[in-house]
Specification:
Layout: H1 5-26, H2 37-45, E1 72-77, E2 84-92, E3 100-107, E4 113-114, E5 121-122, E6 126-129, E7 136-138
Antiparallel strand pairs: 1-2, 2-3, 3-6, 4-5, 6-7
Length: about 150
């Protein structure tokens, strides 16, 4: 039996409608972001400050002082003892978004670091910097902070 072009188009449209309706009836509901495992993992990572886990890396980071003009040093203190545990020296750089480049940093407490050039383990206190061969060296006495009568 021969079918006209008009009838073929009509049949084609009808077939498309039928398949679309069948597909819609069989489609599973979309999963929301809350249903995914990723969200659960993310929620576990971002625990509040008072949690028993270690703080995130960036939370206790030493940064340049926002009101500083010129070269300056900022430090981090131990919350329990009040001792300076790390200090960083910055120089101005207009091209850097913060306005400063870190020149060097000295760790007074913490784990030792490996000098990349020599392969030696450098215990604390040690100084790190871009201009230091191997990236780390033992701290000199003038780089280790001294506590004065004001507690600084």
């Amino acid at each position: 039996k021969k079918v006209s072009r008009k009838q073929q188009r009509k049949n084609s449209r009808q077939n498309k409608r039928n398949t679309t309706e069948n597909l819609k009836a069989n489609v599973k509901p979309k999963r929301t972001v809350r249903d995914t495992k990723k969200t659960n993992r993310r929620a576990k990572k971002n625990k509040p400050k008072g949690s028993d886990k270690k703080p995130a890396k960036g939370r206790n980071k030493v940064k340049p002082h926002p009101d500083a003009e010129g070269s300056h040093t900022t430090w981090k203190k131990d919350s329990e003892t009040g001792e300076v545990t790390r200090h960083e020296t910055y120089e101005p750089n207009a091209k850097n978004p913060s306005g400063f480049d870190k020149v060097q940093s000295t760790d007074v407490k913490g784990a030792p670091h490996i000098n990349k050039k020599t392969g030696d383990s450098i215990p604390t206190p040690h100084t790190q910097g871009k201009n230091i061969p191997g990236g780390v060296r033992p701290a000199t006495p003038d780089e280790i902070p001294k506590i004065n009568s004001n507690g600084i």
